[in-house]
Amino acid sequence: MPRNNRTGRPRDHGIVDATTPPKPSADRRPATPGHRGEVRIIGGTWRGRKLQFPSADTLRPTPDRVRETVFNWLQFDIAGRRCLDLFAGSGALGFEALSRGAAEVVFVERDPRVAEAIGAALRTLRCDRAQVTTQDAFAYLRQAAPRPFDVVFLDPPYDERWLDRACAAMESGDWLAPRAWVYLEDAAANGAPSLPEGWTLLRSKKAGDVGYHLARRGAAPEPTTTPNSG
Asked: Is 152 helix (H, G, I), strand (E, B) or coil?
């Protein structure tokens, strides 16, 4: 179960100290059984580096063009920040954040094979600014939050419709800094996500079957009722 939402039995514990980021290809197709997938870091210190992840039927890394847009949105809010890649999968979003100067990234992934691949990529990149936690995302959120996160990446399995639940759990559990950024990804057909009170949807776009959005906690609503699509 790759993206912390894929198939396989979740584990409750298992933290692996690692080194830095990989994330899969721009293509949303699942990896072919028996083969490994590959993700390319598109910006920052490790720009152009390719990292591998194990095959898994439902693993679908965020496409390159979507990542590029998301990190353009966040370009001044990544360096020095504490980030959470909650349904990590290949780790593409967390790796991209590390490459662009994030102070720390916590990857939460319940599939042990995929979590180990993230750890191996971090060691290859000689990065000591990340942790990999082999745990179900919602079990992780039931714990006491050690310190709030400044940026969170949420890309659960589309068919589970877990975005609302994850947002509510983070809001009630003090996982977020007062003005944290939250990236949300879902099937485009599902439309804009429903957000907790006090959050504002600031960006919303589609790329093929992918709908992706940027929200901010504690942000004042924008003058228009339509999220900026740029």
From this structure: strand
DSSP class of 188: G
In sequence order, what are the beta bridge partners of 217?
199
Q: Are strands 130-133 and 50-53 parallel, antiparallel or unpaired?
A: unpaired
Structure tokens at 98: 């590390």
Distance CA 213, CA 202 (A): 8
* Residue-range domain boundaries for the chain: 15-217
Closest by CA to 13, choosing from 168, 123, 140, 156, is 140
> What's the distance, CA 146 to chain centroid?
19
74-84 pLDDT per residue, tens = 999 999 999 99
104-108: strand order across its sheet: 15-17, 130-133, 104-108, 82-85, 149-154, 176-187, 210-217, 199-207
pTM: 0.80
Sign of the Cα torsion 187, 217, 94, 140 reads: negative
Top pLDDT among 126 and 4 is at 126
Query: Taking the CA atoms of the chain, what radius of gyration do you get in angstroms?
Result: 16
User: Which residue's structure tokens are 């804009």?
Assistant: 192
Q: Report the topology of domain 15-217.
A: Rossmann fold (3.40.50)
Contact 18, 122 (CB under 8 A): yes
